[in-house]
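> call design_seq(struct)
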């Protein structure tokens, strides 16, 4: 085995470890986001209302609960269709709870919407 080959294997292994760490970070952040969404929806709508929202998402956009963190734009759009102006209140509470779970201070930013905050958090945590 040549030194070049050993170096390439080492580099490949390092790359795989980095990807694995990022993957685990994404998974943890996604799991946390789903838990926060569950908790927040139940605060507003209790169990039955929350299940109705998840059913609505699945029937209208084929978005399963487990996919919400991967497709927050679909979640937000459907929530707005269903709740109209009330969706902003729910989204704001989701964000406040999400930031709190991450031990961060939520601050409203002019021109920012739900998706902007989610994108910013994912970038901050390397997702």
């Amino acid at each position: 085995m040549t030194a070049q080959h050993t170096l390439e294997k080492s580099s490949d292994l390092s790359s795989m470890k980095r990807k694995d760490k990022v993957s685990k970070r994404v998974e943890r952040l996604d799991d946390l986001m789903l838990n926060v969404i569950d908790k927040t929806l139940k605060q507003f709508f209790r169990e039955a209302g929350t299940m109705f929202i998840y059913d609505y998402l699945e029937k209208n956009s084929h978005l399963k609960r487990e996919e919400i963190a991967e497709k927050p734009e679909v979640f937000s759009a459907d929530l707005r269709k269903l709740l109209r102006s009330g969706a902003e209140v729910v989204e704001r509470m989701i964000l406040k709870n999400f930031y709190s779970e991450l031990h961060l201070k939520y601050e409203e930013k002019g021109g920012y919407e739900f998706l902007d905050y989610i994108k910013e958090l994912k970038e901050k945590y390397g997702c």
